[in-house]
Amino acid sequence: MVACFAGVASAQAIVELFTSEGCSSCPPADAVLECLETGGAIVLGEHVTYWDRLGWKDRFSAEAFTLRQEEYVRRFRIDSAYTPQMVVNGEAEFVGSDEGRARQEISKAARQPKAKLELSRDDGAVSIKVAGLPAAAKGADVILAVTETRLDSDVRGGENGGHKLRHTGVVRSMTTVGRVDGKAAEAGDYSGRARYHVDPSWKRENLKVVVFLQDRASKKIWGAAATSP
């Protein structure tokens, strides 16, 4: 178990980690993500595919996460995608093993105004209520992710061959379920309802349903919340 520093202010920040079981630099970043979740941040472990051809196929990888990371490459104007990459609230990116930088960015996010999200579950669906939306949130996507924690892998090839890896907040699915239209942004609130799928192989006690609002162009996240399924 990694030793976690105390004192992270979560402010319901979304912390994304682009990672891979095939990357030897990623396990320390996975450990940082676990610390941040313990501190109250909403974490999304997004396993990319471009390591899969280099000796080990990551069972959690998906092309959707590779494409999402490419969107951040363009947003931050960096040369290329890399692992481990951490992104906080869509506004800052850095090497995912840098816990000090992560806490700095989460604290910065805590000082910024944000919308308030309330989630309530209802028979395989979640009702979403948002208050305090700024007018600038017009056009933001409403994104729903299902995550699973406490997932272990015995890696038998690639750079981490022979090691047992533990993952936190692995994104099992991510879907855009709505969009903030001009009327909602003007009124400062949004409401909606979205269904989500839970695969029988996923352990329900380790799952979270995460909803966040993200600007399409700037990638800024206007607010987020999480609940059990």
Beta-strand residue percentage: 35-45%
Structural class call reads alpha+beta
- What is the average of the pLDDT values? 93
Helix content: 10-25%
Helix-strand topology string: EHEHEEHEEEEEEHEEE
* Number of domains as seen in the coordinates: 1
C-alpha Rg, in Å? 17 Å
Say how many strands there are: 13
Uncertain runs are none
Taking the sheet with the most strands, its summary is: 4 strands, mixed
How would you describe the shape?
globular
The count of helical stretches stands at: 4
Biggest sheet: strand arrangement? 2-1-3-4
Distance N terminus to C terminus? Answer: 26 Å
Describe this structure in words.
With 229 residues, the protein is α+β, with helices and mostly antiparallel strands. 20% of the residues lie in helices and 35% in strands. The protein has helices spanning 26-38, 63-76, 99-110, 182-187, and strands at residues 14-19, 42-47, 85-88, 92-95, 116-121, 125-131, 141-148, 151-154, 164-167, 170-179, 189-195, 207-214, 221-227. It has a 4-stranded mixed β-sheet, with helices on both faces. A 4-stranded antiparallel β-sheet has the order 10-7-12-13, with no helix packed on it. A 3-stranded antiparallel β-sheet has the order 5-6-11. The two termini are 26 Å apart.
Q: Characteristics of this structure?
A:
globular; 229 residues; single chain; alpha+beta; four-stranded antiparallel beta sheet
